[in-house]
Amino acid sequence: MFFYCSVYTAAIQQPYIQSNRSRLYFEKQKKHSPFLKRTVEKTALKKIFKGPEADIAQNVWSCTKTFTSIVLGLLIAEGKCSLDSKVSDFLPELKDHYPELTFRHFATHTSGYKAAGDKTAGGHGQSSTPFTPSSDPLFAPGSAFKYWDSAMNVFAKALTMVAGEPLEDYFKRKVAEPIGMDDDKWGWKDFGIIDGVIVNGGAGNKGRGIFISASEMAKLGQLYLNKGSWNGR
């Protein structure tokens, strides 16, 4: 599963950097991220400088994929599916052209899923109809790697069917509330009701993904550093 490191997405106005190498890295990142301004980690996330920007929820785009993959891990832990479960068991519309597609394929960007309207030249699966499968896969599942947003959005729909509730609700109950994430500082945008269920974006494209502040994202990063443990739980 992927963890797209996002702590750097809000950093540096008055940085406290331990080494020249770290300083150069953060200065380089600042040039490429318009909201890399205020919060910077100090000594392995033990201290974070805070400013107004650190508590403003912002679109973190493909960092959404981290949240989607976290949900998969939790559902596997609950025994509701496995990495090798056939996705078509939960999304019958995939049976015709993607019968061998598994959750492992989605989680590793090896699904070969293509949506109707996806352009293979110069894009990465940004169809406005990601839930309508194309009859012409990109490749056989597991045979190649392709970073593809439509696939991640269908992944999210499948996980929604497994969970039996919107991913935002599931993530909130299983992760956000236990680690004290502030509801006002994070949210998970959705595509609306698709086939009777609210489907949160799994990729983060088209503004249908995670919006979160740097301070709340840092809590999730700390949870990873703690290997899933929080205050003894």
Question: Can you tell me about this structure?
Answer:
It is a single chain. With 233 residues, the protein is α+β, with helices and mostly antiparallel strands. It is built from 6 helices and 7 strands. It has helices at residues 20-32, 64-77, 103-107, 149-163, 167-176, 214-225; strands at 41-42, 47-48, 58-59, 186-188, 190-194, 197-200, 210-212. It has a 3-stranded antiparallel β-sheet. The chain has a two-stranded antiparallel sheet with strand order 1-2. Strands 5-6 form a two-stranded antiparallel ribbon. The longest helix has 15 residues, at 149-163. It starts with 19 loop residues before the first helix and ends in an 8-residue tail after the last helix.
Can you give me a brief rundown of this structure?
This protein is an alpha+beta fold and 233 residues long.
Itemize the secondary structure elements and their pairings.
Elements: H1 20-32, E1 41-42, E2 47-48, E3 58-59, H2 64-77, H3 103-107, H4 149-163, H5 167-176, E4 186-188, E5 190-194, E6 197-200, E7 210-212, H6 214-225
Antiparallel strand pairs: 1-2, 3-7, 4-7, 5-6
Helix pairs in contact: 2-4, 2-5
